[in-house]
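ping. complex inputs:
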Amino acid sequence: MKLAELPKNLIISHLKHGGLKLKIGAFNVCIYSPIDTVSEHLLVLYGDYDIVSDNDFIDFHTVVKSPSIIRRYFRPQVNFSFDGYFPFKPLPYTQASAMFEWGLNWCIANHSHQYLVIHAAVVERNGKAFIFPGNPGSGKSTLCAALVCNGWRLLSDELTLVSVVDGLVYPAPRPISLKNKSIEVIRALSPDAVIGSVVNNTAKGAIGHVRPPTESVKLASVPAMPAKLIFPKFLDGSKTILATLSKSRALLKLVENCFNYNILGVNGFNCVSDLVNDSDCFNLEYSSLNETLLLLTDLSD
Amino acid sequence: MKPLLSTIFTNPQLALELDSNQWDYLIRQARNGNVLARLGYILEEARLFGQIPIKPFLHIRSAQIYFERFYISLQREIVIINGVLKSINVPLVLLKGSAYVVQNDTAAKGRIFSDVDILVPEEKLYEVEIALLKEGWFCNTLDPYDNKYYRKWMHEIPPLRHLKRQTSIDVHHNILPKIARFCPDAKQLMANIVKNREHDLWVLSREDRVLHSAIHLFHEGDFKYGFRDLSDLDLLLKEFSQQEGFWEKLLQRAKVLRQGMPLYYALRYTHLILKTPIPNKILQLSASQACNKLNIRLMDSLFLRALLPDHKSCNDRWTGLARWVLFVRSHWLKMPLYLMIPHLFRKTFKRMFSKDQ
Amino acid sequence: MIGEISIELPMDGKISCRFYLDECVIYNQFSAETHLIGGVGAEIFNVISKKSITRNQLLNYIRNIFIVEMDCDLETHMDNLLQEYQDLGLLVVSMNYSA
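pong. complex structure:
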């Protein structure tokens, strides 16, 4: 049964009491939150996700709520916890939905060492996975959203999970996080895209989330073979330049973008090396989304 | 109600009968108690690894992968520290987790910790600190009160952190503060150290390793890793008691170091919570050796709560109070009243203030 | 007794190498460091990843592959590299004695 098939008041009741349990890619996530913006966020963006039964094992027990009764009303704050552990300092109450997404990213990045976890967006077309590693500001999320709005399958906008065992990319599709101007760019590019409430004044500016396509969520258990490793860099006014990157340089660049490379040790090194060996590696400089979309679509044919 | 974690640690075969919800609790309790990797090794030892359902298995493996990396980087850290101490002719005596690793004690399995603990003679303390500072460590504690707390009253200098590797080292000159009520004689400890030829360094003798673990746990105020430390004791006792005469030596050493009380609690609570096999005679002898022990029923009500993982599935409505009482007790043991009261005020105020931030 | 300097990867298997054209990437499990090495260094690892070699054999091999400028002291350069890599724990330089 999907979240959208449940009555709204039942969803809110789950969130406030036993916890709402969703299947997100390979992970069963339980969410407890009495906060309205969090329930709205889930209702708008997670409608296609399967509900997990009460008898199932839960990978991540998450709670998003105020740190104290005082902090619910006086300079209101919100905190994220993973089974009683608080990885972050509290944030302003209005950022609750964004905090949930960041918190879940933290859970996956720190507790899934069966994968090499890369700070990268990953999408798929024609059986080929295109991986876009990049720090904030590289434009990877905007690119990811544009591709997905153009029919590419979303595997993840933020955490690329590469199995250390078989080298395939395993999906964990979630709402795509956009910042500031990107929100309007994607709205203009794809008026049908469902974007949740924009959260303002975060450390990263304004944040909005794009609902993942139903088809991508449906295919969340289907891994993809890595084909292209592309390091994007958005530069206002630049031409669209896709330049081949040597595999040795790509390897080092990729290492810098992995969350758990150091933890995986030699298995991490082998996984990164294999990924670089199996993929064509590029640097991408761009400013025009349309041109870039055409280029990448050609590359996937 | 006995938490799942202690049941499975005591009898791993029961893991075969768990349903998904129970595995869920087990993994959470283990992670919370920092023994998730160790749970994996216990199940492996019991030849049950292949029968763990896939989802909990992945969490256990994830924790073990983290431990495997930690294990290698710890070995490197020990080599580097040994090099620094050799350059000033001070023998390296490793304590606790690092000692278990170099000695291949079963208690090393799955044990993840943040600092390397070493023991040096008090007169060499300054020299050792300078040598470490020269090699890239720096003092992590800037607060002048904390600095004074360590140097004047405690059995260690403030923790040092390495600038580049971000690893930490705790340099001790004793295993309890000098102002503690039952501070052992550090010279007695040093007289009993044992050479580890493979790594060219020293560790405490087996009995002293057990006693140190017991002293640390039963003088502690923060039981965040209480269950892990109890599990360490369980593994150490099981392994070392295979050697003839171990129990007698252990009791004797406790007498010499005036640590009858922590040993008694260690034996009592490993036996009660983890069913560590300890001969009745030894339990009785250690009880009689433990002077100044308070009403045992009261201590049971405190320790049988505090030594479980601090997870909501293990806590009852008295657990918070029990932990608080033991927190105060640990300070009473470590320092005289005239120091303890202002220290506690300061600590509580700091805790409240930083929570609010 | 004649002494020969031999160069090889550490026996404990903690060094992993991957080769790309004229560069190689090396992972040291002990230090958890990843190194990108090119030029003469990459050739050194290319050779020793297959088997150990003496210093003289290595020097001859390098001389045959690289075009060296007149005033360049390849021998010193190679020795400096070997020292650097040994300090990083990436290879072992030892003296072997045979009767």
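Residues 2-90 of chain C form one domain.
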